[in-house]
Amino acid sequence: MDTISIDLNKISTAGEAPVNEPERQYYFMAKLKEWVKQKSEELGRPLTFITQTFGCQMNAKDSEKLAGILEEIGYVETDTEEADFVIYNTCTVRENANTRVYGRLGFLNSLKKKNPDMLIALCGCMMQEDVVVEKIRKSYRFVDIIFGTHNIFKLAELLYNRLQSKRMIIDIWQGTDQIVEDLPSERKYKFKAGVNIMYGCNNFCSYCIVPYVRGRERSRNPEDIIKEIKDMVADGVVEIMLLGQNVNSYGKTLDKPMTFAELLLEIEKIEGLERIRFMTSHPKDLSDSLIEVMKNSKKICNHLHLPVQSGSTKLLKAMNRKYTKEQYLDLVDRIKTAMPNISLTTDIIIGFPGETEEDFLDTLDVVRKVRYDSAYTFLYSKRTGTPAAVMETQVEEEVAKERFNRLLKEVQDISADLTKRDEGTVQTALVEEINNQDSSLLTGRLSNNVLVHFPGCKELIGKLVDVKLAECKGFYYLGELVE
Ligand code: SAH
Ligand code: SF4
Ligand code: F3S
Q1: Which of 65, 116, 242, 452, CA to CA, is 20 to 30 A from 194?
Q2: 91 annotated to bind ligand
Q3: Domain MTTase N-terminal: where (predicted)?
């Protein structure tokens, strides 16, 4: 499921590597292709790899790019870490993301002892932090390659350097204004795909580490985005998810500025594309023209993820979110007036420094007023280097946990109530997979992101079908195919 086809056999590996990208990477990929072939012949089996993604959809997309490069040079993907090349694409948004990575590294070391040819690479957001790289350099000597978020495209060159030098290769960039196009990418699903429309973040919410590890906001050119989607559609994709930390500020930094709403209008025109999703929307930049475009669109899904983070205007100010409780509720009103049936989801942080019972009640109030279809709730996690980490009024863990549980109950009750509203109706679902608990059932996703399980044959995977939502089971439906 490769969208870009490069004929590596036509790339010359004689002489020095070209300076420009992506030609430079094609050169290293061609060199590695020869090496992989030789090595496989020696071993009498293909070389295998696995990428493990920690973190968000941007990371998942980056992992697809890594997989694309490795497949192009002849590695074969496997689903076990007993592989010849294991890549951990890490996340550092909350402390527990880091803990998980350290926890699993010891296990990787034990695998490497059994397979001396095994290579281990760490990349992604966690690697953009100096303390992490220092710790790995000192205490995890068996790691072969460390790189960051800005030079994902360089995997082939880094792997080549590692094979040449036999030493740990560390290449972390502090930032970049470069966007390298035209490298391979290996999609996880044939029928749906993520598409980066921008990289980085300029918002500096005071709790958040993303702007430090992902760098400044950069939008891709609309022509490149449209071309990528058209190629994907020609290759069987019917649903895309446009990705960015704040898609609503898309296009501001382009030579020819363009709004996100305008980009959506262009994407809507792509024939054969059936569904458009996007994330994430920052409430401060969500325009009335975007609401209008969503309302009139035949392809944009009936779902909006609109992270609120907190319902307290005081905390929102301390979080640097740039909207008040009232402005958020007013925005939700405008969205619901235009699209009464829309499914809204959100992210909420509990235990941000300075949070009082009163602030928490404001958050509960917003949850009750908006009535989210679902909400991702997080306990505040202190990230070194962010302004919130040095705020003096950190909330006690016990207090935060108690509030967290109260919030969770509220969110789940509302969610179960809302999901039920479509019971008995017929809706279109994109069939995604065979149900992993009962193989006689298929699992499909509705426009509003809710799942439905129904009897059917696997030939329907990747197709949009009409399903009667016979019975609501809390957060999902059991249904029947409507012929
Ligand atoms: N760009 C997206 C969010 C990316 S991070 C946006 O602005 O909506 C995903 C979610 O992780 C955030 O929405 C926030 O709720 C949560 N998060 C980020 N930093 C956090 C921290 N330090 N502690 C707890 N949750 C955090
Ligand atoms: Fe983090 Fe805020 Fe940027 Fe989202 S918008 S990635 S929460 S800084
Ligand atoms: Fe994590 Fe990086 Fe995404 S920190 S949430 S993987 S942008």
Answers
A1: 452
A2: yes
A3: 47-164
Q: Is the CB of residue 214 below 6 angstroms from any atom belonging to ligand 3?
A: yes
Q: Do 226 and 335 lie in a common domain?
A: yes
Residue 347 has pLDDT above 80, yes or no: yes
Q: Structure tokens of 82?
A: 């007993």
What is the distance in A from the centroid of ligand 2 to the CA of 347? 11
Q: Could you tell me if 141 and 225 lie in one domain? A: no
Q: Is 301 part of any known ligand binding site?
A: no
Q: How many domains does the chain have?
A: 3
Output the pLDDT for position 2. Answer: 52
pLDDT tens-digit readout, 76-95: 999 999 999 999 999 999 99
> Do 238 and 382 reside in the same domain of the chain?
yes
What is the Cα–Cα distance from 106 to 110, expressed in whole angstroms?
A: 7
- The answer to whether residues 415 and 429 belong to one domain is no
Rounded to two decimals, what is the model's pTM? Answer: 0.95
196 and 340 together in one domain: yes
261 Cβ contact list (under 8 Å, min separation 6):
287, 289, 290, 292, 293
Residue 442 CB contacts under 8 Å (≥ 6 apart), including other chains:
431, 433, 434, 435, 453, 454, 455, 456, 457, 458, 460, 461
Residue of 57, 199, 204, 210 to test ligand 2 pocket, by largest number of atoms within 8 Å of CB: 210
